[in-house]
Amino acid sequence: MTESPSRSHFESQENGSGPRRNSRSWTFFRLALGLGGAALVLLPVASVNSYIFSIAGMFMFVAAILLAPLNPRTTLREKALELGARVVVDGGRYHLAKSSSFVPVHLFIAADRISAFDAKFRLLLEIPTAEITSFLALQADKGWFLEVIWSTNAAEFSYRGAYAERLALAAEDAIRSVAPATVPPTAHRRAAGA
């Protein structure tokens, strides 16, 4: 009888659990490497003919300095688990209100909110799902866009390229799965082309 591996087993393999991911063990390794290298550099003082150890020690000491620990990098899956998101979809490009630039975003769709994060996981927009009054994916001159209206606010996400329609409609479907039942169905039918 075989036992299926637990979820934590898979997560530890996906996160690449190794000495470089664990900063404490990596720091200990670097410290041991540096001290070992320094000891080998000082070995020729005790023994006159061991310059090979001195060169190896110098390389070990320099390697200990240069091998900095990896910065922990958050993945989309980890951020989705942190936020309790049901699904993560491509949000296209979101127009920042304070500037004229467009930023590529991912939409994290949770039961109570929709969060738009940029590539560095900075929160750019948060929409409470209970306040959504309408949402609609439409074709425009230069691609597709998805408009979400809630309370007295609105956000627009634009999609361009070969998969613009597919991405915009996927985002619309994801929002539909958490939107209140009071959102008018006509907006859904217009987006589907009915």
| Terminal-residue CA separation | 54 Å
Strand residues, percent: 25-35%
Tally of helical segments: 6
Apparent shape: elongated
Task: Return the CATH topology of the largest domain.
Answer: PH-domain like
* Name of the CATH superfamily of the largest domain: Pleckstrin-homology domain (PH domain)/Phosphotyrosine-binding domain (PTB)
Strand order, biggest sheet? 4-3-2-1-7-6-5
Number of domains: 2
Give me the Rg, rounded. 26 Å
What is the highest CATH level, the class of the largest domain? Mainly Beta
- Low-confidence parts lasting 5 or more residues at pLDDT below 50? 1-16, 186-194
**Structural class, please?**
alpha+beta
Ordered list of secondary-structure elements with their pairings:
Blueprint (H helix, E strand, L loop, with lengths): L6 H8 L8 H24 L4 H16 L9 H8 L3 E9 L6 E8 L3 E5 L5 E6 L3 E9 L2 E8 L2 E7 L4 H13 L8 H8 L2
Antiparallel strand pairs: 1-2, 1-7, 2-3, 3-4, 5-6, 6-7
